[in-house]
Amino acid sequence: MLHKRKILFLISPLNTFPSSTYQTTECHHLKMTNMKAILFPLLAVVLIGTTMSKNLDDRAPAMVTFDDCDCQCDGTTYLDEHDTVQGNCQSADTSGRKWCYISSDINTLEACKDGFEYDSRYNMSKSYAACSSPDPSSDECTFYYD
Fold first, then answer.
1. Beta strands in the chain (DSSP E)
2. Which of 11, 21, 63, 71 is disulfide-compatible with 112, CB 3.0–4.6 A?
């Protein structure tokens, strides 16, 4: 009997008996099963999230108010050091949002509630909201000017 064990050891020098191979395969299968259990729900959440975000555009737009029609860009622009047009909704700031200068009259300042960064060169503040406001002569603002 002792002789047979030595032969088995010589034939299989790494001690890779069938039971250890089975354990390795079983362990690999468990790792793959655990990875799938995490990966598939995560993928499902991402797909559902991107699908639902497209449905958000289907909402009705907010009603236009008097402030929307009074919050208008002034049209002032300048070229920065990289020859990029700044202002009048032509470019975005570091937040990634487009902006424009708004006049300093009281009606515009009250209408554009998001006025920021007063610029003494032009005696004007900046606004993001003015970039998305409707044209005062558009049908959306006729209720105000009629």
1. 78-79, 85-86, 100-102, 116-119, 124-127
2. 71
CA dist 77 and 87 (Å) reads: 5
Report the C-alpha gap between 87 and 70 in whole angstroms: 18
Residue 145 CB contacts under 8 Å (≥ 6 apart), including other chains:
69, 136, 137
**Location of structure tokens 């909704």:** 89
E-strand ranges in 61-99 read 78-79, 85-86
Burial label, 124 (beta-carbon count in 10 A; 0-12, 13-18, 19+)? buried
Residue 27 and residue 97 in contact, taking contact as beta carbons nearer than 8 Å: no
Q: What is the DSSP string of 26-58?
A: HHHHHHHHHHHHHHHHHHHHHHHHHHHHHHGGG
